[in-house]
Amino acid sequence: MWLTARVLEQRLFAYHFLNGAAAPVETALDAYRNEDGGYGHALEPDLRGPVSQPLHTAHALRVLDEVGCCGGQRVERVCRYLTSVSTADGALPAIHPSQRGYPAAPFVPVVDDPPSDLLATGPVVGLLHGNEVWHAWLFRATDFCWQAVESLEDSHPYEVEAAVAFLDFVPDRPRAEAAADRLGRLVRGQRLAALDPGRLADRPVPSGYAPGEHHFPHDFARSPQSLARAWFTDEEMARSLDHLAAEQQEDGGWPVRWRRWAQAPVLEARPVVTIEALRTLRAYGRFVG
């Protein structure tokens, strides 16, 4: 962490594992905030340039949630930004057209009229509900997420993870549990989770994913409280967590498994992945340190 992480991730690591305070995390995050209430400046490493983007802003909300500061005027400004960049149906696009002219990963399309995207919208709506934030933007965005999640027929791991991020915190719990049960059957039926880490050669990755970009039970159920935990047996989850722990490398960090387009984003993403791995292991009682 001290060798390769940005100041933000160093402050987050200190908060989670070294009894650090939340205020330094907020200060580091403020460097990425723009006057429109959104966040930019490569907070999400795949997108470069100063402009605010939904993906950057979702990342900022995750950070604020982690340190217990996802509320108040800062989040009110974020919701105003989300309103300003929403599509006609009130949800978020993956990439706002303002990204055009700035560097981005080659697999990130920038179009003039982008559609609503569950990957961008689901985690944001879930975080805001989980922090009991109420704003007019949430009403239509929540409706979009329900429609998108309940109509999924042929999906892929990242989309499922976004759906889980929404279902874990949306207020209508009976409806969320029913949707999660259906989604779990889809995950197992379409073999989206690698249930045996020892036999990955027999498990192809989804179309468009990088070689080795497998997803495991712990990627879907990041804590025992997640609705996705019910999708997997105790044995399957234990194997998944054993695999996660074994992935730690000699330098102390965890590898980035998703596609690589340039060296800098990989270096910046590794500390994020490392903190996430440690938090998952701790959530399941596997973290020692």
What do you see in this structure?
This protein has helices at 7-17, 23-30, 54-66, 72-85, 118-130, 136-150, 157-167, 173-189, 217-220, 234-246, 263-283. The two termini are 15 Å apart. Helix 1 (7-17) runs parallel beside helix 11 (263-283). It contains eleven helices and no strands. With 289 residues, it is an all-alpha fold. The chain has a domain at 193-288.
What attributes characterize this protein structure?
Prenyltransferase, Terpenoid_cyclase/PrenylTrfase, single chain, mainly alpha
Structural class: mainly alpha
Please describe the biggest sheet, giving its number of strands, its sense, and whether it closes into a barrel. none
Q: Tell me the overall shape.
A: globular
Order of helices and strands: HHHHHHHHHHH
Average pLDDT across residues? 94
Portion of residues in helices? 40-55%
Q: Radius of gyration over alpha carbons?
A: 18 Å
Tally the beta strands.
0
Question: What are the low-pLDDT stretches, counting only 5+ consecutive residues below 50?
Answer: none
- Compute the number of helices: 11
Give the terminus-to-terminus CA distance.
15 Å
Question: How would you summarize this macromolecular structure in one to three sentences?
Answer:
The chain is built from 11 helices and no strands. 48% of the residues lie in helices and 0% in strands.
Topology:
Blueprint: H1 7-17, H2 23-30, H3 54-66, H4 72-85, H5 118-130, H6 136-150, H7 157-167, H8 173-189, H9 217-220, H10 234-246, H11 263-283
InterPro entries: Terpenoid_cyclase/PrenylTrfase
Organism: Streptomyces bungoensis
Protein name: Prenyltransferase
